[in-house]
Amino acid sequence: MRPALAGIVLLAFATCAHAQQVVPEPDGYRSDNYRTPVPATLRGARVVATPEAEAIWRAKAAVFIDVMPRAPKPRNLPAGTIWRDIPRSNIPGSIWLVDTGYGALAAPTEAYFKRGLAQATGGDPAKPLLFYCQAQCWMSWNAAKRALSYGYSNVAWYPDGTDGWDGALLPLVDAQPQPRPEDAAPAR
Q1: pTM score > 0.85 for this model?
Q2: Which domains does the chain have, with CATH numbers?
């Protein structure tokens, strides 16, 4: 590679690396562009990389909470159209609290999130929780921040999520979200 070109490549790499390191931690929740670089920190939470997340998982030292959203069934599908949810694989033993990482939650979704966390912790706000989604996804950051605001005191955030887990060749399993009350079939 020519020296001038090599210098440009190195400068571009250094600029990208620096840009990834300086994502500021906002005071509130992220409400758009969820798949963009995330901060390196979350005030009040412990940020963990894949090796630490794996150690916590192997020791069964925290409840793993997946907050990956699920695409809703499109409205006005023609009669007879078959709808299949996009499959989700998550870390074995995780609880999938679907759609709970958005910047603003509708009251029923927030109630679902609070109920799911209470069930996962047995009502113990000091029980360790580890939140994740995918790499570079603000949804897990938002959900972990929200859990802190609810009084959960032992919160970990795994920003590499299932992408980092899969990249380390760790196991993933097919997942189904925790049901919401509105998902229950009507009584007959």
Answers
A1: no
A2: 38-71+85-182 (3.40.250.10)
